[in-house]
Amino acid sequence: INPVITGIFVRLEGEEHSLPRIVKMTSVGAMLVLGAVIGFANWKSLFVLTVAFGLLYYSHKFVFKPIGDRFVRTGLPEVIRRYKAFLQWMLERDYTVARAYLRNTFSLSAFTLGFAALLLGGLVMGMAGMIPALILLVPGGILLFVVVVGMLVHTLESVFLGARSSVRAGIIFAIVAVAVLGLMSFGETAIGLTTVLELLVLPAVVVFFGLLGVVFKKRDVIILTDNRARLLNGTLGGLISIFVMFAIANPGTEFFPDTDPTIIQVSLESPLGTNIDESNRIATEAQSRINQLLNENPVARGNIKNLQTGVGVGGDINFGGGAASPEQASVTINLVDYGDRGEKSRFTMTRLREQLRGIPGVEIEFTKDEAGPPTGAPVNIEVSGSDFDRIVTYTKEIKQLLIEAAETGAIPGLVDITDNLNTGRPELHVEIDRERAARFGLNTSMIASTIRSAINGVESGTYRDGEDEYDIVTRLSEADRSSLESLKNLTILDEGQQVPLVAVADFSITGGLGSITRLDLERVATVGADVADGFNSGAVLQQVVSYLASYERSLPAGYSLSYTGENQEQDEAFGFLTTALLIAIGLIFMIMVAQFNHVSTPFIIMVAVGLSLIGVLLGLILTRTPFGLMTFIGVISLAGIVVNNNIVLIDYIMQLRDRGLDKQVAIIEGGATRLRPVLLTALTTVIGLIPLTFGIGVDFVGLVTDLRPNLQFGSENTQFWGAMGTSIISGLTFATFLTLVIVPVMYSVFDSLATKLHALFHDGESSDLSGNGMMVGATQDGALTAPALVPSNPGPKREL
């Protein structure tokens, strides 16, 4: 379809194309009629459309088109010339020095061997156990450690040799980092001085070694003599550095992004057995406190649309329902739309939590609507074991420890700490003395049946009214069962003899469980807690785990703590997405092997997908965006874009080589040809994601119909989808450099390696790492010279 549309609407430069007069007149008439109809319907719409089309037409004709034409004539050729010169420089190498092959290939070869050893060790461990796998895992781990150190050394070597260029790059990196952090600080993200200093460590290292190069650099070569090896070692060193930065200045992890609530529900739970009148009093006090806050704070009052108080109701904010319970009350608060709020609704929620703190004898829990699917609590601790009484004791102790940690600030951000024991329900225990009962000829069944019939009643018949039937239940009158003392006056009838209940049983008032929870048929108690707004749930959970580590170690054998809830669901979701990503990569790899008919090219493309994580992680670090499910989805989407760009690039390079071009000429010409499409793909994708990522919104309907564009920055959708947009934008920005520079260099390296291996197994044919017997040079203006033929085995040489 696209080629047909292109053939109809696109005109080549210098091509004349004019429409027939009748077509022009018809088009003008149709536009006038349409304008008249719109004007009669709504003059504001006609005004907006006229101004908009006029601005588009004249800005295109007098601004954008001249700029575009000038860029195509002068700017684009200069960009291509500089790109060719840069790529040509990246392909330079010198193998005339001593041990050149060892110096340039040791780190990358050792990295490949170490990674392969760890991979095979993992497979052996899965099939034969840990002991046999250690034969591969230990050497592989040691080799990888040595290689990582070597890659970092080579990276610093390149920075040292870069001298002034390295200093400029480090300063630019620092400026960009500080600028991004400054912009983020104006939003919702709080940026501390410690975070800024942590993020400036890497550019400071680059500037430091660059300055050392400015002062002490005496030659252009230290260890590596192949620019391709420098680039690949530097890229892997950069990947390692980014992982280190991510660990030091960790923005955290999350399951789903935390969004501003539109509905807040405050649950007020009193001890079991609380009557509904007391619950109503508590709800009234809570509502009066909320009203006091709203009267004192006009901003918070402006955020709230309405509120509703319920007493003795069950259910939750998502699905409602649930059994009525006299000890429960709730206050549901509906907030105004996002654009109409005077402050973030999460701040209003924090004010409400502070205002309602301290109502005696009440457990208060705040819940809000979630943009994603319902998840478990951020902190959810399951206590399990054999003896439930000890489980109850441990659960209460853990809950008290967390309450003290939250109040003292040992675990900042931990709020709404609860458990599910539901203990304290008042119960009257009737303890039957079997010996005394036997003297009267009674058994426990007869006594229990009498008590049950007196309190709950027994079905004695059916009342029929037409087609409707009603059960007739017989039990004591309300006056005779309204107090515990009246129950002691019960008598058990046995063969005409009335036996007082107190003669065969003793009474005691105790507390019982309101509910019993089992997991896999075992009794389990749960301690749950929420995380305050502005705190990362994953970071708070890690603090809880560390805080309770010593207590967990002190538990006797057979008792354990399990951290479930949101954390468990996050691990399951990440595991599923990881599996899906690996399967997708495997399928893509097999398809590319079938397309290219060899393994090296698909391997290059898959490596490029992995290296794109440099941009993703750097973007998350600078924008302080936690790595979550939406970020993972963004990485998967980014992988598709990177694969497509690199497939087209490498396929075009191979086509040029099939036409007879030298390898390096084909690489440079292929990259130059794909330069504009790759840049346009990246630029259009980034621009298209900016509104979603940063929440730039315009109400076009309101603009056209009522001249009200309602320009807005930020929304609930931005908070939910922004992490995905950030990962794609930052990853694609780096992937552009990856596609245009790193992938062509990797292609050159693998082709040279293939040529070297081919020479080793085919009677000592040319073994030069150039991959063929040709050289390519460049004139002073950057234009490529024709490749010059050289002997098939000329011996050592320096090649450009």
How far from one another are the termini? 44 Å
Total helical elements: 25
Structural class: alpha+beta
Beta-strand fraction estimate: 5-15%
Q: Mean pLDDT across all residues, rounded?
A: 83
Structure description:
There is one protein chain. By secondary structure, this protein is an alpha+beta fold. Among the domains are: 2-71, no CATH class; 425-513, Multidrug efflux transporter AcrB TolC docking domain, DN and DC subdomains. The protein is built from 25 helices and 21 strands. The protein is globular, with a radius of gyration of 37 Å. The protein starts with a helix and ends with a strand.
Which helices and strands appear, and what pairs or packs with what?
Blueprint: H1 2-9, H2 21-41, H3 43-90, E1 93-94, H4 100-128, H5 130-162, H6 164-186, H7 193-199, H8 201-216, H9 227-248, E2 263-269, H10 276-296, H11 298-303, E3 304-311, E4 328-335, H12 345-355, E5 363-368, E6 379-384, H13 388-408, E7 414-419, E8 423-432, H14 434-439, H15 444-455, E9 458-465, E10 468-474, H16 484-487, E11 491-494, E12 497-500, E13 505-513, E14 518-519, E15 522-531, H17 537-547, H18 549-553, E16 560-563, H19 566-596, H20 600-611, H21 613-623, H22 629-658, H23 663-694, E17 696-697, H24 700-706, E18 712-713, H25 716-760, E19 774-775, E20 788-789, E21 798-799
